[in-house]
Every structure is written in C-alpha cells, then in structure tokens.
Give the backbone structure.
Amino acid sequence: MEFYAEAKFLGDANPGGFTAGLSMAESATAAEFEVCSETEGLTVFRDKRAHEIHQKRTKVGEAVCIETTFVNHNTEPVTLEMLATVALRGVRADKVHRLQSNWSAEGKLRTETVLDLHMEVSWNRCATRVEKFGTVGSMPVRKYFPFVALEDSETGEFTAIQLYCPASWQIELLRHFEEDRLSVVAGLADRDFGHWMKNVAPGESFTTPRAMLATGHSLYEVCDKLVKAQRPDISPVDDHMGILFNEYCTTWGNPTFENVKKICDKLEGRGIQYLVIDSGWYGKMDGWWNCIGDWDVNEEKFPGGMKPIADYIRSKGMIPGLWFELESIAHMSAHYNDKEHLITKDGLPLTGSGRRFWDMEDPWVIDYLSERVIKLLKDCGFGYLKVDYNDTLGIGCDGAESLGEGLYRKVYASQEFFRKIKREIPDIVIENCSSGGHRLEPSMMELASQASFSDAHETVAIPLIAANMHRVIKPSQSQIWAVMRAEDSDSRIFYSIAGTFFGRMCLSGDIYKLSDHQWNLISQGMEFYRAVADIIEQGVTESVTYTTQSYNHPTGEQVLIRRLGNRSLVIAHRFENSRELDTSFLDGACVLATYGAADRDFSAQAWLLER
C-alpha cells in the first residue's frame, strides 16, 4: 500500500479505461506527478510544469491525519477539476464497508464483497472498474457517511478512511490490474460529481479538507481509532456527561413561559443539567415555522422576552438552552426577498422547500446574526445553543469559479460563525443538529459539544441508529432522546431509557403526567447512566450484534458491548419475534449493576460488569 498524488487539471486528458464521466482519477495530470522529496511526515510530488502536491501525514492517537496542498509554482494560472486528499494504491481487500444514511435512519452498515460490486478485473486488464460514492450539498451525511473501510478477509486486516468535509465529498475505489488490490481516492467532490473547479494563480496554493486513516484487525478497532482521533471543542461546562431535557416532544413547537415553567418545576432536583427550549419561541403564533430568520421573540408566549424564562430555568438549578436555525430564512421572514444578502444560484435566490439561505460570507449577515443570535444568548443568559439546519444547498451556488467551490466557501463560512459564537461565549454548549443527523461528519462535530444523533425521537429503531453512531462519532457527543409518555408500560420505559446508554441521555415527553412509579423507573435509569458514564465517554466498543434489516419493523435482538479497563457496559434490546437473549457475556463477570428487563419483545436490559 502506497500513497500517491491525484489531481486533474482543466485541459489535460481524461483517464483511460473507459472511465471518463465515472472518474477523474488516473488522468494525464496525475501521471505527471512524481515524488521529488520525502521527509518524515511530508511527501512532495512535482510535475514538469512546476506544480507541486504536498501531502502531510501526522499521527493523531492511533490514526494518521492526511492534509494535501496543491501549490502552483508555474507562471500561468491553473484550474483544478479534482484534487484528492487521500490517494492509496495497492490496498489488498475483498470486502467494502460503508455507512448508509437517510433521515431518521442514519449510519446503517452496508458490507459488500468486491465481486458484489462487480469490480472483478477485466480479462485483459484494460478496463478500469470504478465504485464512486459520496454526497452532494450542504448536508454531508445524506445517503452516506464520509467513511469507508476495506477488509482483507484472508489476513484480517482493515484499512479505514474518514473525511472531514462539511460540503460535497466523494470516495472512489478503482481496480484494473491486480486481482486482490484496490486504489482508494477520497476528498472533495470533483467536477463530474460535485460541480467543483478551483482556479489557482501563480504562487498560490489550495488545501483540501483533511482525512483520517486507520488500520487494524476489526471494523470496530479501526472505527474506534478514527473516532478517538476527532478533537471536538467541548465546552468546559459540558465535561461530565450531564443529562438534558428538550421540551420539543412535550410542547411540539409551542413553548410558552407557563408550560416551560411547569416543566422546570417538575424537573427541579432531578439531576438535569440542561433544559432546552426548542423551536416555536419566535415569530407568529400560527406560523413560527415560516418565520425563521427574523428571530423576533413571540411576546404572547414569552412576555418580556426570553430572559425571564432563562432566569427561571437557572433558578431551578439547570442551564437554559435555545434553538436556532440560524443559516436559513423562511418565506414569512422580512428578509426572504433580500437578495443582496442571500445565497444565489444562477443569479437567483437559492430556494429549497420553504427555505432560503443567508450568505455567511457577507459581513452584513454576520453582523445581523451576531445581534440576533449571539447578543440574545448573552443578554438572556443562555448557556446552551441548539443549531438546526433543515435544507441543503444542493449542487452549489454563485460566488466562486464553480458551483461546487461556491458551496465549499459558504459552508466553511458557516463553520467560521460557529467559531465566532465560541469566541464570544466561551462556555457555550453547542449542539450540532441538521434534521437530526445530516451533519454528523467530523469537521462539524469538532465545532460542537454534542450532536443530535437522529430525529428518530420515538421510533423503535433508536437502539439500531444509536449503535451505528459508535462507528463514526464519539458516544459522549451523541445525544439520544428518550421520550416519555403517560401511557408507557414498564417495558417501554426500559426500552427508551436503555437507548440513551449508547450516548448522551436526553429526556422529553409527558413528564408532568407520569406516575410516581414511572418516575421511579426513569430515576433508576438516570442513576445507572451516571454509573456507566465514564464507559460511554472513554471506553471502546468491542462488538454490536444484530440480525434485522428493517428499521421500521426490526426483528430479533441487538447487543452492544463497550469496555473500559476491567468494566463493561452491555446494552441489549429485543425487537419483534425475538429470542431469549444469549447471556454468555455474563460468564466469569461480576454484575455491579443492572437496569431494565429484557423479558419480551420490545424490551431492554443493560448490565455494568467487572472482570
């Protein structure tokens, strides 16, 4: 396995092997680059036209961070149509692992053999086989996560790559010569896939989004190495796996001073760290969802603004949180037709399904949002910010030499606003949300303390999705909801609460209608959560076993085992037509604590074990 340089210049010959339109890899551009210098951690490739590609490799934990920079030393400008962050050849593999993602069904493992993908080499090795996948738009975890793991079944070796790219990205697998070896090319989506071109003037350079690479002897080993290499900017306030309450599934977008006060009174003294007011605190009573962008407090709901309720939440021992969809504008906003400050495509405001988008490169927009978002948070004393994002920019936008580069610049400008929030409110706890899980990629995760794992708030698929997330984000950042209903049986409470043990516990629902018995079960779950919080935060996921393919109608069972030192957390969920659990994981273990009862379909149990 060796690293090499991959790029494609406008005007250079397309690749051979009948791949034009399928791939830009192995073009005439790439063929010219050769290694001109190599030192520890840095390889410089150079062509005869005085262009260089600098590939820097840095150890991060047990993974390797790869950063690639193109430098134009020529006297003429050059236009890039493709520049890969990672290019590996000679990877021996017969299986490919990917993580598919749809709304409320994030991270489903997809494993195929190279033969399943129809990538068997041609009889005379002249036709390149290509498997190319990725995401186009500003929801980088839509259809797939920016991740791939390649397995060699014979040796048991795994090679995995995770891209740090909040805009359009792609990963390609190529084969045309050797029966058991692949090339892997990954980075920004190219001109064919993501409508991306980049002009680089003489003396200038361009650096791609970085990537992490890990090798190991199991899928969970390489995933753990990649996840532990992530370096999130966690608020110092959010350092002990505190429990949240979000009122959305209580008020369904109709929070008021009175009903939030009622929630506060019920939660007082129960060990909740954050109480988050979700959407609906602004705009008009009959259309808050169409008023996004103005952020005028609805004073019929919150007389005197948001400070009185924030103060009340703090008086009850909790940190107040507030929801924004700060990059978007809905059609009842006063700024919906303010083209000067909106993202455009083909000269027209880029419009999604009821959304337009602020141009986050516009200084006026940054000043406006600083006043409406940052100042409001500061003045009212909110310590938690949930940032939602409910549409995508699609293939790209105006403002650069290509639609894809326009998209790339706007998304990175949004990320810079996240950094501005952190600079101005250093202790703020930021939640990364995009219709649940559409932004669960590592460069976004590094800007947040927590993330919405999904919008699957009350579905039976929560344990499946929550377990999926262990492969790609830190469980300590993965906020998982348990929505409590007055009609919930004991089994349903166990099922929901045990789901939160996969990450960060967040409660919602009919909490002031619950019986004392129901509250007792929830309190037991909270106590168990606190007992295993260090395993969730610092441990290693060793295995997840399940058999179901359906998320809407799951069958069978799922068991996750996560270990820290000599202690383990085991979480078991039973679905429809389940069998009695195989509890061989208890053999030789001392049971320190347990929660729930996995005694029937749609029940759950968790164990804290010591060996």
Summary: The chain has two domains: 2-229, 243-452. The radius of gyration is 25 Å. The CA atoms of residues 76 and 332 lie 48 Å apart. Residues 243-452 form a domain with the TIM Barrel fold (CATH 3.20.20.70).
